[in-house]
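User: Show me a protein chain along with its predicted structure.
Assistant: Here is one chain, sequence first, then C-alpha cells.
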Amino acid sequence: MSSRDAYAALRNPVVRRFAGGRFGAVLGLQMLSVSVGWHLYEQTASAWALGLVGATELLPVFLLMPVTGAVADRYPRRRVAALAHTVVAVATALIALVTWRGTSVAPIYILLAVVGAGRAFAMPAAATILPRLLSPVEFANANAWISSTFQLAAVTGPALAGALIAWTGGASLGLAVAAAGQLLFVSQLARLPEVHPLPGAVTPGLDGVFEGFRFVRRSPVYLAAITLDLFAVLLGGATALLPIFAKDVLQVGPAGLGWLRAAPAVGATLMALLQTRLPPWRQPGRVLMAAVAGYGVATIGLGLSRDFFFSLACLFATGVFDSVSVVIRLTLEQVITPDALRGRVSAIKSVFVGFSNEFGAFESGATAALFGPVASVVGGGIGVLVVVVAIARVWPELWRIGPLHTLRPSQHL
C-alpha cells in the first residue's frame, strides 16, 4: 500500500470526526480507570478493591446485552451512542465530586455501575456507525487509523491522569477532565450523517433479540476470534494490578503508574500507524494467533520484571501485539456481518470484550490477593499461550482464512 493510500480514510470527514470524538471518549475512560484505581488503592490498600472495579462495570454490560444490541439495530445509532456517552459523562463527573469530598468509596462503585450501563449501550451503537458510511474496502484502513487515535488516547490518558494526581494529590481533577472527554465525543457524533435503521431490521419479540447469537454460532471464524480475545485478555490482562506494581514492586509512584499504563498504548499506536501502510494480511488468522501468543510472552516478562524500564518494554510489546489483534478482529466483524445484525453482533462482542477486560480485572485482583501480583501476572501469561493452542485445535477455520477484504456476509460459514 502506498503512503497516499495509507491516508485514504483520513480524507473522509466522517472518519476524521468519528476518530477525533472517539479520542476524547477513550481519553476519558483511561483517565477514569487510572484515577479511580489510584484513589481506591490509596483509600483501601486492597487488591480486592481494584478487582471489584472490573466486576462492577461488567455486570450491567452482561445483563443489558440482549437489549443494547436490539436498540442499536432499531434506532439511529449515533443518537443512541450520544445519549449513552452523556450518561457516562454525568456519572464520571459525580465520581469526581465523591473523590473530592472524600466520602466513603461505596458511592464510587454505584456510579461505576452507571458507567457500565452507559457503555453497554454505547459500545454496540458506536461500533456499528461507520459500516453504513464506508465501503468494505475502506474498513481496514479506517480501522487502523481509528485504532491509532484510540491508542493515542490510551497513551495520553494514563500519563495525564498520573500527572494530575501527582500535581493535585487526588483524583478529582483527572475525573473532571475524563467527563469532558465523553462530551467531546457527543459533540462529534452530532456532526455525523444520520443513518436510519433498515426497514424490518429487528424481528419482533425474543426471536429478534437472539438472532445475533444464532449468527455468531454459525460463524466459526468469528466465534474463534472473539473467544481467543476473551480468554487472552481474561488471563493476560495485568492492567488492574499496575497500581500495585507501581507502588509496591517497582516503587515509581503515581507518575510512574501513568507511564506504565501508557506504555501498551504507545506500542499499539505505533503498530496501528504501521498497519495503515501495510497491505492486507494474506493469512490474517495465523497473524492473529501469533499476535496473541506474543501478548502472552510479553505478559510473562512483565510479571517477572523488577526493572521499571524492562516493565515498560514488556507493556509496550503487549500493545504492539494487541493492536494487530484489534484491527483484524474489528475488520472481520464488519465484513462478515449483515448490517441488520450489526448492533446485536456488536453487543455480543461487547460482552466478550467487557467480560475479558472487566472480569479479567476482577480475576487479576482476586489471584493477586490470594497468590501475590507476580504469580497472578506470570500465570496469566502462561494461560494465554495454552489458549492459543486450544483455539487452533478447536477452530482450524481461523487458521485457514484468506484476506479479510475478500470476505462477504454470505461467506461467513
